[in-house]
Write a structure and sequence with these properties.
- With 484 residues, this protein is an alpha+beta fold.
- Helix 10 packs across helix 12, helix 10 runs antiparallel to helix 15 and helix 15 packs antiparallel against helix 16.
- The strands form four sheets. Strands 12, 13, 14, 15, 16, 17, 18 and 19 form an eight-stranded antiparallel beta sheet that branches. Strands 5-6-10-8-9 form a five-stranded antiparallel beta sheet.
- It starts with a helix and ends in a 12-residue tail after the last helix.
- The protein contains 17 helices and 19 strands.
- It is globular, with a radius of gyration of 22 Å.
């Protein structure tokens, strides 16, 4: 484990540079047969293509694939599989939809990948209590489709159609966080299979209360743990009333400074905006080309308001006055669902639009978050750094809560360009830390941000995390190489 912790922490280089040297070999036939005995032969695969598919997420990070992929059908099987792997010293890597951006599913020591997507039931809806219990295969879009006629919805939207338990594991966020919070604010209880197979309900079996002062916050411990402490097999989530009406608007600004100043002023004026998204001029140009739109090629804010018709009119008036004061122009409004969808098309397709700027290249996304008051400073400086770097990249972010991303386009075969991307990302992460922010607002630590995490929480913080890890996973087999 010590050797693994000292391994190179940047995964944007050839495979040998960031996989542990203590890699497990091929799984023995007897062990594979033991896996099949738990879930059935059709739910275990050692095929190369399947293993490679499960050896990476949407990031640039690559390692050797796991030794086998297993699809459990229920929590009892997950428990049996965990106990079997743990008894044999076999690493365990949880896998959901594979939409992560920090290499969280890379099998740095080989082992067994548990794909939890076959467990896809919405188990219990408590409409009067505004809560729902979901299995790990349920995505946020599937849940909201199920809730469509209930008058409720789940607002945390990371962009990709990620699994809800995976979102809990990474502490995900998204466009609605400024009003509704992140996964940390919307998870009430978790069912977790511990590394040795024991079953834990972090707030007590079946409980879905909104507040508690009962002991340690075990739910909070597992939200954001990135599969390093256990396997989340069910999540009890907080639901929200669906808004009576929704209004979206976009407006263009003469500069990054003007757009971000408007964001800060809107929040300071206590305008209860549901979403505030920022796209720089390069991102808007890419979105226009990709989605065949005609927005001005300028720093742009996308805003959305939720509430009654009367309240929306007041909110829009306040926000528009603030934006115009900062030089905004080219306002577009949409209230009907189809119109809003078209208006938001640029933001929702931003990742793919950025990739289209350099066909054949890969994308790398940074993920810093700073206090709102420091947002103008860091965004303006980041824009200047991006221009000076010579890299192809865009800026986009959930600026309403201080979180933004640079989407950098990189040729994975160009070692020098990869190094420049690494240097840029590390510089940005450290700048965020210097402004009392964090190196990751929603993507997680994964493989690439372990050194920045140490700088963020300090020696005592890291030692405390290691002690918690050692208590719950003394053999270091749960998703090894991530976070710590």
């Amino acid at each position: 484990m010590a050797r693994l912790l000292r391994a190179v922490t940047w995964g944007l280089f050839p495979r040998r540079s960031y996989c542990s040297r203590e890699v497990q070999g091929e799984l023995s036939k007897s062990f594979v047969e033991a896996l099949k005995a738990v879930v059935g032969p059709s739910h275990v695969s050692t095929a190369t293509a399947v293993r490679e598919q499960h050896g990476h997420d949407e990031s640039l990070y690559r390692c050797q694939p796991p030794g086998a992929v297993v699809w459990p059908q229920n929590v009892a099987q997950v428990s049996q599989l965990a106990a079997l792997c743990y008894s044999q010293g076999m690493p365990i890597i949880p896998f959901g939809t594979g939409t992560g951006l920090e290499g969280g599913v890379c099998a740095v020591q080989g082992g067994v990948c548990l794909n939890l997507t076959h467990m896809d039931q919405i188990m219990e809806l408590n409409a009067e209590d505004f809560s729902v219990v979901v299995e790990p295969g349920v995505t946020h879009k599937a849940l909201n489709t199920h809730l469509r006629d209930s008058g409720l919805w789940f607002p945390v939207d990371p962009g990709a159609d990620a699994s809800l338990c995976g979102m809990a594991a990474t502490g995900a966020s998204g466009t609605n966080a400024v009003r509704y919070g992140t996964m940390r604010d919307n998870v009430l209880n978790l069912e977790v299979v511990l590394p040795d197979g024991r079953l834990l309900h972090t707030a007590g079996r079946g409980r879905h209360f909104r507040k508690s002062a009962a002991g340690y916050n075990l739910t909070g411990l597992f939200v954001g743990s990135e599969g390093t402490l256990g396997l989340i097999t069910a999540a009890t989530l907080r639901l929200h009333p669906a808004p009576e009406a929704t209004l979206a608007t976009t407006c263009a600004f003469p500069s990054v400074q003007a757009a971000v100043d408007s964001t800060v002023h809107i929040l300071q004026a206590a305008v209860p905006v549901a979403r505030i998204e920022f796209l720089d001029d390069v991102m808007m140009d890419a979105c226009n080309r990709y989605s065949k739109l005609s927005h001005p090629v300028a720093p742009t804010l996308f805003l959305e308001f939720h509430g009654s018709e009367r309240v929306l009119a007041e909110q829009l008036q306040q926000a528009e006055e603030i934006c115009r004061h900062n030089g905004a122009s080219h306002f577009s409004w949409a209230q009907e669902a189809k119109e809003r969808s078209r208006l938001w098309a640029a933001r929702h397709n931003a990742w793919y639009a950025a990739l289209a700027l350099r066909p054949g290249c890969k994308g790398y996304s940074t993920d810093v978050c700073v206090p709102i008051s420091r947002l103008p400073e860091i965004l303006v400086q980041t824009k200047e750094d991006l221009k000076a770097s010579g890299l192809t990249g865009t800026i986009v972010g959930h600026v309403g809560d201080g979180n933004f991303h640079c989407i950098l386009l990189v040729d994975p075969e160009d070692t020098q360009e990869l190094r420049r991307v690494k240097a840029f990302a590390e510089q940005l992460g450290r700048r965020a830390l210097a402004l009392h922010g964090t190196c990751t607002g929603e993507h997680g630590i994964g493989l690439g941000k372990r050194l920045l995490l140490q700088e963020e929480v300090g020696a005592v913080g890291m030692e405390t995390m290691r002690q918690l890890k050692a208590v719950l996973d003394p053999r270091g087999l749960m998703n090894p190489g991530k976070v710590l």
